[in-house]
């Protein structure tokens, strides 16, 4: 959250964030800068309704309200009204509560904006699963970017080799093979050629069979 204090907010831009980053004083700074935000309300969110817009229950929007924060500290940090949208997730059936300072867009658009935030979570999950970045070797911005770009470049190069060699193995398997044979002097084409296991001996097998007559 402290990093948010170091950046300048662009007027007219939307900042979509998890509810863990919700801080009313910081949200109000963005509001004063002319930027918009969309976040989820915490379970202990305390506010009273000032106005209710016509509902759209058929579309999943339960209520669209203007609210004022309760409590001295919260009302001091964000003295203006917030927009609270309560909707029902059609997939899981869960009821979600969103907070925003934008009053022009429809409630469904606000919900769709927050849904796009999940793509960021999926991207980080993809990085952990495919780029095999367990920990960062450095903590500076340059060190993090260098490690991510190096891992991404390696991933793309192996994907190109897999396509050129027409390999049936998954990309994850190819990366596993390269990781364990990185110090071996073996041609990449040979290292990635997986032998098909044979369940039966070849026809010209001349070994003696011990237990069968």
Descriptive notes:
By secondary structure, this protein is α+β, with helices and mostly antiparallel strands. The chain has two domains: 2-116, no CATH class; 122-191, no CATH class. Helices cover 36% and strands 17% of the residues. It is built from seven helices and six strands; from the N terminus they run βαβββαββααααα. The chain has helices at residues 24-32, 72-77, 107-116, 118-130, 141-164, 171-180, 188-191; strands spanning 14-16, 36-40, 47-53, 61-69, 82-88, 95-100. The chain has a six-stranded mixed sheet, sandwiched between helices. β1, α1 (24-32) and β2 (36-40) form a beta-alpha-beta unit. It starts with 13 loop residues before the first strand and ends in a 22-residue tail after the last helix. Residues 196-201 have low confidence and may be disordered.
Q: Keywords for this structure?
A:
about 210 residues, alpha+beta, 2 domains, six-stranded mixed sheet, 7 helices, 6 strands, elongated
Brief write-up:
The chain is α+β, with helices and mostly antiparallel strands.
Q: Determine the oligomeric state from the structure.
A: single chain
Report, as a whole number of angstroms, the end-to-end distance.
77 Å
β-strand number:
6
Counted up, domains total 2
Outline the biggest β-sheet.
6 strands, mixed
Task: List the topology elements.
Layout: E1 14-16, H1 24-32, E2 36-40, E3 47-53, E4 61-69, H2 72-77, E5 82-88, E6 95-100, H3 107-116, H4 118-130, H5 141-164, H6 171-180, H7 188-191
Parallel strand pairs: 1-2
Antiparallel strand pairs: 2-6, 3-4, 4-5, 5-6
